[in-house]
Amino acid sequence: MQHKISRRALVKSGLIAGALVPAIGLIGNNASAALPPLDPNDPTAKGLAFVTDATKVNASANPTYKPSQKCSNCAQYQGKPTDPVAGCNLFPGHSVPAAGWCKAWAQKPGA
Ligand code: SF4
Question: For the whole prediction, is pTM greater than 0.70?
Answer without folding.
Answer: yes
